[in-house]
Amino acid sequence: MTGAIFFSSKYGSTAQYARWIGEATGLPVFDIKDAKADPASYDFLILGSPILYFRLSIRKWVKGHLAGLGGKPICLFSVSGAPAGPKLDGWIAKSLPESFIKKMHHVALRGRQVPKELSWYDRMMLKIGAMANRDPEARKQELHGFDFVDKTSIAPILKWVQQWQASQMSS
């Protein structure tokens, strides 16, 4: 039984997590921009995506590959400044088909935002968002950045892979 990691990344946090997961599991790692990478070739998948403007950046890729993803065990890790919870769940619900969400396992990972590395447009949107944000800590992070990237946070994903692989050996 073979698995692979497919990810989308804009500023690097999601790519870093994908590489760490690949190193820990021995699974191949593919950027979704790699046209040669075929998710249908694998028995199980780990998908990684940042949340950008309240949506998963991988959403169009997932919808375009639903036929090849259907029926496979899938672990999705999302990367954002937001912690796990209803707000993040809502963003994922806006991004993916309900039938897909029901079958996947989700792990929320925290990302990194360095204002000077952002595009002009992304910086301006964060400033606008910060003005409307009622949470003072979130507003501060939107304006000044944050770094929550932590290698140890991939542990639930590694556990999911180990459990899936063990279940296949006992079958």
Could you explain how this protein is built, in words?
The protein has about 170 residues and is of the alpha/beta class. The protein folds into two domains: about 5-110 and about 150-170, Rossmann fold (3-Layer(aba) Sandwich); about 115-145, no CATH class. It has helices spanning about 15-25, 60-65, 65-70, 85-95, 100-105, 120-130, 135-145, 155-170; strands at about 5, 30, 45-50, 55, 75-80, 105-110, 110-115, 145. Helix 1 links the parallel strand 1 (about 5) and strand 2. Helix 6 packs antiparallel against helix 7 (about 135-145). The longest helix is centred in the last third of the chain and has 16 residues, at about 155-170. The N and C termini lie close together (about 10 Å).
Question: Brief description of this entry?
Answer:
The protein has 171 residues and is α/β, with parallel strands linked by helices. It has helices spanning 13-25, 59-64, 66-69, 86-95, 98-103, 120-132, 136-144, 155-170; strands at residues 3-7, 29-31, 44-52, 55-56, 74-80, 105-110, 112-113, 146-147.
Unreliable residue stretches: none
Mean pLDDT: 92
What is the chain-wise order of helices and strands?
A: EHEEEHHEHHEEHHEH
Strand content: 15-25%
The level of helicity is: 40-55%
Quickly count the helices.
8
Number of strands: 8
Largest sheet: number of strands, sense, barrel closure = 6 strands, mixed
Q: Give the class from helix and strand content and strand pairing.
A: alpha/beta
Compute the number of structural domains: 2
Could you tell me the radius of gyration in angstroms? Answer: 16 Å
Cα shape: elongated
Quickly give the CATH architecture of the largest domain.
3-Layer(aba) Sandwich
Tell me the CATH superfamily of the largest domain.
Flavodoxin domain
